[in-house]
Amino acid sequence: MKKLENIQLNVPLLRRKVPNLTVAARSVELRPATVSNLCTGKIPVGRAEVRTLVALATLAECSLDDLIIRGEKMEMIETGIKTLDVFAPLTKGGTVGLVARYGMGQLVVLAEMFHRLKQNGFATVLLVPSGDHPEIKDVFEEVDVQVNSVDEAYEQLVVLGKNKEIAFAADRSNVLTGDIHQLQERLNNVGVTLTTFLVDLKGAAVDEDLPYGPLETLWQFDADLAARQKYPAVNPIYSTSSILEGGHLEQNHLAVQQRARKVLRRYRELRSLVTVGGMERLPFAEVDTYRRGERLEAYLTQPFYVAEEFTGKKGEDVQLRDTLEDIGKILKGETDSIDVEKLNFIGKI
């Protein structure tokens, strides 16, 4: 057994060996939510129960040394989207699952990701889902190659992978059939890696603990943020990434992220009091926390390039170092005098 430092689950191995991990986990009396949190790094491997790790190794028909690997340096793709880069970084060559109900903006986020990645030299490929899904057409403008079957996807990805990094997207329906896992395994065998985005056009993933199987990154959309038009409505508390664990982030990034998440979590609790009884219901000692959480939530909104036509706002790209610096200012109270509305849908402060 490896020393419990800088270690992580071998998520690609789990993805290959146990495609339907939800059912498999329940069959050995493991909670799918626990498995999901281990895969994304929300629960560090060092805190996992031994019986959990043994059960996962048994399901994958591998040894513990194969299941638990010393974390190689993961490469983060900096997207320029504030809330994603800070709270749930995108892992190059990994798989990210978008969990949202209809109307929360997951396809806008996918289109924006494709737009930004294309600017950085990626080829963008979409496996068009079967059935009637007219909303997916909103993504087409940012797609270099559309494919209609897994076999066609394989052929195109092998050719593209010789010269370019690839961003690939598919619907959850292709995950449930096992097609995506098989495609990733076939591509791995010929040395092609891709960054995969999985969406759920039916909106059923929100009711599942492990809707896509093992993931490196999870972007969970928030109904309250969407209802208040705080886009992108990605929940900074529950969205996560395996890149957050194992020493893959700079210490300052991790420290700022943890402090910000703590403030946002408490702000959400306090907001319920304010909604019911107004600011006078707040304990005096909590006023600063509320104000800073409110400003942080506003700051994490962001104009997207793909939405300029509809919002009238120019898309904004914010470098991670600027985002971390701005969040630090908010947490220290340096923006307490700035009106909250002035922090909505800006780039950097």
UniProtKB/TrEMBL annotation:
InterPro entries: ATPase_a/bsu_AS (IPR020003), ATPase_alpha/beta_chains (IPR050053), ATPase_F1/V1_b/a_C (IPR024034), P-loop_NTPase (IPR027417). The keyword Transport applies. Gene3D superfamilies: Bovine Mitochondrial F1-atpase, Atp Synthase Beta Chain, Chain D, domain 3, P-loop containing nucleotide triphosphate hydrolases. Its main location: membrane. It is found in: Membrane. The keyword Calcium does not apply. Keywords: ATP synthesis, ATP-binding, CF(1), Ion transport, Membrane, Nucleotide-binding, Translocase, Transport. Belongs to the ATPase alpha/beta chains family. This is F-type H+-transporting ATPase subunit beta. It comes from Evansella vedderi.
